[in-house]
Amino acid sequence: MTAINKIINSSKEQIMPGKFINSPFPTDELMQVDPFVLLHHFGPYKVSKSSSFSFEPHPHRGFEAVTFLFEGEFEHKDSTGGFGRLSSGDVQWMTAGSGIIHVEKQPEEFLEKGGVIHGIQLWVNLPKSAKDTEPKYQDIKNTDIPKVEENGNILRVIGGEYNGVKGPAKTFTPIMAIHGILKNENDIKITIPPSYNSLIYITRGEVKAEETIVSETNMVLLNRGTSSVKVKAQGQAEFLLLAGEPINEPVVQYGPFVMNNMAEIKKAFLDYSNGLMGKIN
Predict the structure, then answer these.
(1) pLDDT tens across 213-236, in order?
(2) How far apart are CA 64 and CA 105, in angstroms?
(3) For site-directed labelling of 172, which of 128, 195, 219, 249 has its Cα 20 to 30 A away?
(4) 88, HSE (Cβ side, Cα atoms, 13 Å)
(5) Are 239 and 202 in contact (CB under 8 A)?
(6) Which H or E run includes 41?
(7) Among candidates 119, 101, 96, 86, which has minimal Cα distance to 203?
């Protein structure tokens, strides 16, 4: 069996004036890669006081929202009282669980001087048994993310375990999340639990996955049962490898909520409108 199932070309979507994201899923071609239900690649954008990349208070329920910030700064504030500040290389792992309201924006001093924002937001589904879990927030600093060096390349282990190195992210289902930084054209062979669904999304440059060239903003969907994949930079490149044990439950995603059926989606909207998800002070 070959490692590669197919190459997914991202769709480009405008989410605010002058700001577009690349998304390999959900699309008509690929709705999800269980347990991952959404991947949005934003930037790199130049931001300033007159052109920020900010999201006003909005709700979530039933999943975990993960921000991998490759460049720039972000501030997070939520209805649990949680607050975090991301800088280049940091990761925010927010469990929406039973319901949370949060706001994401660049700090004022960052906008004053201007800068670049570049990253990925990933939605990780929660199993039905954990959808009503208490919301929480993990602020994972770049300095706390262990690195594995192979053939002069760097693998940052954010979640799960790789070659005996454990990532700091605490997850509800078994997940592996690795940020790969390829600095030369030497092959590296990444091992993956064969029971996981897995993908490689290219954030910068161009990568040769097995014998297939994959360009920036596109994704390699790996076959279930794959235990390893060989990658090589065409020059310099970066990627995000995501692998996870599938939950195998019904998924209904509507707006900011990910539940198991439409009745639960309607209840989420009702609870939010009735103020049951709290408020941001």
Answers:
(1) 999 999 999 999 999 999 998 888
(2) 19
(3) 219
(4) 8
(5) yes
(6) strand 36-47
(7) 119
